[in-house]
Amino acid sequence: MTAVSGQTSTLGQADGSEIELVVFGNEDYARYETRAGYSVVYDDAQGAFFYARLVDGRLVSMGVRASEAAPEGAAMHAVESAEVRRERVEARRARRASR
User: Fold this and answer.
1) Interatomic CA distance for residues 82 and 62, integer angstroms
2) Which of 5, 52, 69, 73 has its CA 20 to 30 A from that of 63?
3) Residue-wise pLDDT tens digits, 79-90
4) pTM score of the predicted model
């Protein structure tokens, strides 16, 4: 398992565009930030990264694409709670095991 801590990567989005984000994590769990430090999440349904805010320990989309200006209230350097991270890791491992 390879971990990254603050590595800038160019990531693709469903519409073919690319975005540079700073990545923290590994194959089981990763979090993403813009170069300015705003937390972002990937929306599978829309196929793009969106600014996020922290709600009950979970990063949730604010509905504004990360390629646009950061909206007021966007989280900076946010980290999900240990419980949320554990849930996401378990779900990802379960999906991999079912393949």
Assistant:
1) 22
2) 5
3) 999 999 999 999
4) 0.90
Residue with the two structure tokens 């990264």: 49
Q: Is 59 exposed, middle or buried (0-12, 13-18, 19+ CB in 10 A)?
A: buried
Residues 83/91, Cβ–Cβ less than 8 Å: no
44-94 pLDDT, tens digit each: 999 999 999 999 999 999 999 999 999 999 999 999 999 999 999 999 999
| Cβ partners under 8 Å of residue 4, min gap 6 | 23, 24, 25, 26, 30
Q: What is the DSSP letter of 26?
A: -
Contact 57/88 with Cβ under 8 angstroms?
Answer: no
Domain count, the chain: 1
Amino acid at 7: Q
Q: Which domain holds residue 24?
A: 4-97
